[in-house]
Amino acid sequence: MVSRRTVITSGLSVAAIGAVGYATWPKLDGYNEEVARQRRLLSADPERHDLLRMATLAANGHNTQPWKFRLNDNTVTIQPDFSRRTEVVDPDNHHLFISLGCAAENLNIAAQARGWNATPATKSTDIEVMLESAAPLETDLYQAIPLRQSTRSQYDGQPVSASDIALLKAATEQGGVSVLLLTEPKAREDILEFVVEGNSAQMDDPAFVAELRDWIRFTPDEALRSGDGLFAACSGNPVAPGWIAERLFGQFFKNDTENDKYSSHIRSSAGIAIFIGDQEDPDHWIKVGQSFQRFALQATVLGIRTAHINQPIEVPRLRGEFARWMNMPDARPDLIVRFGRAPALPMSLRRPIESVIV
């Protein structure tokens, strides 16, 4: 049996080359070199600003990286960067605050690995993380930080063992957050119906399509220049010269094509996780982010991929229907995530640390 440590160690080569099977793509050498530089583990005695690099490897919507960091003597303050919000898909900044929670959890795990206790506290819209010296605690979740990715591809269709499900469930434990892990085929089919309806509504919204297009990076050079956004190869889509990028976008981003893709993606998944905060406010959205980030890191340790299928909660008229389907009519579901096993795709980039420190 392959151990979790073996999975992590073998996965490190993914960070070094971008992804298995993609290292030989034309003009990706420079991109892959930057991925490897950004996704290295911390040195034995890192500077505090290098902790922030680990924080920025967290999950975040559209890879907008909507955060700023302030360093003080013994604290790191994580602040929202509202200039990088996605106002169409995320009008109340719900996804933005979840992204901040993901970054806070990465910071916490990385700090512990190098001898700091990191205690986060939400203050209004900021997260203050107090750092105190402690014995180093390097965990499998820390090793997984550079390897975690949202893998938007078809999975292998195989179930995840009950023991792995238990580990995933344990990783999500967070006050103020509930998590449902659904593995039954009927549940996946029901959720697929919501996803298709939500995706169709979004595809029919020109503002949604335009906002998404603004965050897509079609070429390695474009991705390297911006350091953000959704590089096409990271979603399994073609890498194309800029002069044909718009035409390609119009060809592969169509209603029927996208719905067919989501159908194969969901049906090939082992299960679906739904995260629900106890209240609808930034504090609980941040807690959801912390819970999800640990889930995604634990999945990475186990060789399990994750990807978001949030359409049912991003389309307001469907959100209530989805909550009722969950038998939680008064709740607001915050994240819907499929999981299963598949090869890695290329890793996404992050902006330079200097650009996010204030």
Mind explaining what this structure looks like?
The chain is of the alpha+beta class and 358 residues long. The protein has a single domain (4-188, 266-355), classed as NADH Oxidase (3-Layer(aba) Sandwich), CATH 3.40.109.10. It is 45% helix and 16% strand. It is built from 14 helices and ten strands. It has helices at residues 4-17, 29-38, 48-56, 94-113, 140-144, 162-171, 185-203, 206-214, 220-226, 242-252, 255-267, 282-301, 311-314, 316-325; strands at residues 67-71, 75-80, 116-123, 126-133, 177-182, 216-217, 230-231, 271-277, 305-308, 333-340. The strands form three sheets. It has a four-stranded antiparallel sheet with strand order 1-2-4-3, with helices on one face. It has a four-stranded antiparallel sheet with strand order 5-8-10-9, sandwiched between helices. The protein has a two-stranded parallel ribbon with strand order 6-7.
Supply database-style keywords:
single chain, 358 residues, alpha+beta, NADH Oxidase, four-stranded antiparallel sheet, 10 strands, 16% strand, globular, disordered N terminus
